[in-house]
Amino acid sequence: MKKIKLLLFVAGITLSLLASGQVPQFIDYQGMARNGSGIPLANTTIGVRMSVLEGPLPGTLVYSESHTPPTNSYGLFHLMIGDGTVLSGNFTSINWATGDYYIQTEIDPNGGIAYIDMGKSKLVTVPFAFYAANAGGGGGSLWQQNGSDIYYDAGWVAIGHDTPIDYLHINNPGGAANARITSTQSYYIADASGNTGLWFQENAADVAWLYWNPASQAVFMYENGSQTMTWKQNNVGIGTINPLVKLHVTEENSAGVLGSTLGNMYSSTQMLSPAIYGFAENNTSTISYGVMGHSYSTTSTYNEGVFGEAGGGSGNNYGIYGVGMAGTGGGYNVGIYGEDDGSGAYNYAGYFNGNVYITGTLSKGGGSFKIDHPQDPANKYLVHSFVESPDMMNIYNGNVVTDAGGYAVVELPAYFDVLNIDFRYQLTVIGTFAQAIIKDEISGNQFTIQTDQPNVKVSWQVTGVRNDAWAQENRIEVEVTKGALEKGRYMHPELYGKSSDFGLVSGVPHEARTQYKGTPVKEKDSRIDPVQK
How many Cβ atoms are within 10 Å of 153's Cβ, its own excluded? Predict the structure, then answer.
C-alpha cells in the first residue's frame, strides 16, 4: 500500500451547547487526504482515528475517538473532534489549562480501522470556551493572560460560525444571535464596575453610552457627554427624556427632523416616496394631526411651521398637497387651511408669490388688485376694487366708427355665441351729437350699430352671462340660508357688535392649539447622567 499524505488544519470552533449553562465542547477539524503520488483521495469514505495527547511528547493518551467522514473531489474531509465514536477517555473532562496538548491523526483510506499514523500536531489554538469552563486564563491558546484577564488581539472572533468579518461577529443561521449584558447595579456608569450598558471610546476618549435606567424606566443614549436619544414605553425621543409620541423630536437651533427619500415606498409597484409620512386616524383626542408644524422664535429671521418644496419630477410636483375628505360629521372638510392670528402689520392667512389657479368657485369678502403705484412705486401702492355681479358676467367693449351710410359691424370673438347668453348692450357717441342704436343684435358672433349721421365714433359695451358646461352646473346662488353649523354666527362678528366667539368655527379653536413657548425649555433629569458615582 502506498503511503498516504495528509494535510491537516484546525479551521475553527463550533459553539454547540451541551446543556444550558455549559460551554461548547467540539473542535472543528478539516483535512486533506492524498496518496503517495499527491493525488487526492476523492469522493470516498475514509476511516479516521483522532487522539488527544497530553505533552510532553511522545505524549500521554487522554482521549481517542473514530470517524468515517466522506471526502470531496479535492480530498477534503471535515469532522468535529469531540463528536465521534468514543474509543477511550472523556473529551469534556480534559483540563486544557494543565499543559500542552497534541492531536494525533490516523487514517485508513479504505474506511476501516487499519489506521496509518499520520503524525502529531501541537494544539496552539486551545478553544477559549473549553478553557473558560475550568476557570482558566491564557494558557497555551491564542488567548493571552494579563493577571486574571484574558485577551486576543491577533485577529477577529467568530461565534456560531468560522468566517468573522469584524472584530466580533455573532451568527446563528437557525435562530436569534443575541449578545446579553447583565448587571445587579441600578444602571450603567461608564467608569464603575458591575453596571449594565455599552461604552464607546475613540482614541481613549469617551464618545457614547447606551444603557437602561430603571429610575426613568427608559433606555438612554449619550453622545459626547450629551443625552441624545430615549426609548421609553415604545416611544422614541430625540432631544427629550420623556417622549410623548412614537417619535418625539425637540431641537433648539436646527432642524428637528430632516426627511430624505430616494426611489419607491413600500414596493416597486406603489409609486409613493414621502420623505416624511404622517398618519392619524380614528383618534379620540380633540385634535388629530397627520403632520403638525410649529415654529416660534423671537430671534429667527424667518419662522416656518411647515415648509414644502417640490421639483424635478416628470409629472406633477407639489410643495404642499392637501385633500379635504368628507366625513360623517357636520363640520368643514378643508384641504389646506390658513388663518391670520397675529397682530403685526403684515399678517396673511395665505400669501402666494406667483400665479394661483383655482378649478372651483372662489368665495371672498372682497377683492382688489394691488400694485406699486405707477407715479410713486417706491413709496405707495395703487389699489382698485373688483367689479361684482350676481351673474357670472363676461364684459366685452371697444370703439368703432360708422361708415358713410351710418353703419358699423362689430366682430366679437369666435367663441362668443357658445360661451354667452342673455346679452346686454351699451352705446356712447363720441365727438358729436348723434343718435346710435343696435341695428342688428348679436348673431354669428357679431352685431351691427347704426347712427343717424355718417362717420360717427361709438364706444360700445356688451355683457353676457357665462353658459359653458361648468357654469351651467355651478350657478351662483345669490341669497343663501346659513346651515346649522353657521347659523347664528358671522364671518366678521366685530362688524355687528359681536365678540369673536360668534365667528365661524372653520379653524381649530385657539385654546385647543399648541401654545407658544416664549422661552425654550430644555429638559434635564439628573438621574440619567452616565458619569454619576
Answer: 8
Q: Which residue reads 370703439 in cell numbers? A: 399
Quote the CA–CA distance of 12 and 240 in Å, as a whole number: 46
Q: pLDDT value at position 508? A: 59
Cα Dmax for the chain? 142
Cα separation, 503 vs 489, in Å, equals: 5
What whole-number distance in Å separates Cα of residue 332 and Cα of residue 326?
Answer: 8
Confidence of residue 189 (pLDDT cuts 50, 70, 90): very low
Cα gap 418→231, rounded to integer Å: 67
Q: What would the grid cell of residue 442 be?
A: 348679436
DSSP 194: T
Among residues 517, 510, 520, which one has the least CA distance to residue 287?
A: 510
pLDDT over 90 (residue 379) = yes
Contacts of 313 (CB under 8 A, 6+ apart): none
State the amino acid at position 501 in one-letter form: D
Sign of CA dihedral 43, 45, 49, 50: positive
**Phi, psi at residue 410, to the nearest 5°?**
-100, 120
Locate the DSSP E strands across 176-216: 198-202, 205-213
pLDDT digits (tens, 9 = 90+) for 256-273: 666 655 554 445 555 555
Interatomic CA distance for residues 160 and 331, integer angstroms: 61
Beta bridge partners of 78: 30
Cα torsion at 130, 135, 138, 140 (round to 10°)?
Answer: -50
Q: Is the pLDDT of residue 86 over 60?
A: yes
- Of 483 and 67, more confident: 67
Give how far Cα 522 sits from Cα of 224, 226, 238, 401, Å.
17, 12, 12, 79
**Would the pTM count as exceeding 0.90?**
no
Q: Are 503 and 491 in contact (CB under 8 A)?
A: yes
Residue corresponding to grid cell 413600500: 266
Q: How far apart are CA 91 and CA 89, in angstroms?
A: 7
- pLDDT tens per residue, range 494-509: 999 999 889 887 665 5
* Residue 127 grid cell: 478553544
- Say whether pLDDT at 44 is over 60: yes
pLDDT digits (tens, 9 = 90+) for 138-153: 344 677 778 878 888 8
Rounded to whole angstroms, the Cα distance separating 317 from 161 reads 50
- State how far the Cα of 392 lies from the Cα of 395, in Å rounded to an integer: 10
Query: How many C-beta atoms surround the C-beta of residue 252 within 10 A?
Result: 10
In the chain, DSSP finds a helix count (H) and a strand count (E) of 3, 26
Do residues 74 and 32 touch, judged by C-beta distance below 8 A?
A: yes
How close are the terminal C-alpha atoms of the chain, in Å? 74
